[in-house]
Design brief:
The protein is α+β, with helices and mostly antiparallel strands. It folds into 2 domains: about 15-50 and about 60-85 and about 165-215, no CATH class; about 90-160, no CATH class. About 35% of the residues lie in helices and about 20% in strands. The chain has a 5-stranded mixed beta sheet. The two termini are about 35 Å apart.
Length: about 220
């Protein structure tokens, strides 16, 4: 929805002057090199905690990383997710879309609206805060008196059990990013840790840094 903060469309990284792109690539290279002593990572930069010393068994289903491209004018702004997470996202989206289509306009308006109320200030001149007001659940006849959320959950279970979407490994690029070129990678990894990210980067480069899907 347009607002005063995004009325001006951003300039895509690939449309920027060569000097600006080259400077961005150089700065990312500096960030990676400065971080090596602390993390030992030489292939990419991220501000995410990939290894939790307090919970070494913790697994990650996604990671946002930045890596240098194959030339001096390219850097990749990458999101890497597991096929497991991609499957869950696809099922959730399909269930929501199917349930939403069975609501009329008034019901859709009710489900998408929200209300907030002002929170009393703790002291004079303090920050103004607002909190979300929980709306009463509505049970719909077309969902056998289930709420919208309950119907979405039912559909998710049904889709997962009867017709799960086909999900495979893939690389999808997006050249409309303001910082770098977007890369959405879906990989058959159980844990997105440093080794998994390095393997993903190596495969992406082996494929020539381009779109690819094993389902094609």
């Amino acid at each position: 929805m347009p607002n005063r903060f995004n009325q001006r469309k951003h300039v895509a990284f690939t449309a920027m002057p060569r000097r600006k792109r080259r400077n961005a690539v150089v700065r990312l290279g500096w960030k990676i090199r400065r971080n090596v002593a602390q993390t030992g990572i030489t292939e990419f930069w991220t501000d995410q905690l990939l290894e939790d010393l307090e919970d070494p068994e913790r697994q990650h289903q996604w990671a946002d990383v930045y890596l240098l491209g194959s030339d001096r004018l390219t850097l990749w702004n990458a999101e890497i997710i597991t096929t497991r997470l991609a499957m869950s996202d696809a099922i959730r989206e399909r269930a929501f879309t199917d349930a939403w289509a069975r609501l009329n306009a008034d019901e859709q308006e009710r489900e998408s609206s929200f209300e907030t109320v002002a929170v009393p200030r703790k002291r004079a001149g303090g920050m103004r805060l607002r909190e979300w007001v929980h709306q009463p659940d509505v049970h719909y006849p077309q969902f056998d008196m289930r709420t919208f959320a309950q119907e979405c959950e039912r559909l998710e279970d049904h889709i997962r059990a009867t017709e799960p979407p086909k999900i495979g490994e893939s690389f999808a690029t997006d050249r409309d990013y303001a910082y770098g070129i977007g890369l959405h990678a879906v990989v058959a990894e159980t844990n997105i840790n440093r080794d998994a990210i390095v393997r993903t980067i190596q495969r992406f480069r082996e494929f020539g840094e381009r779109d690819w899907s094993e389902l094609d």
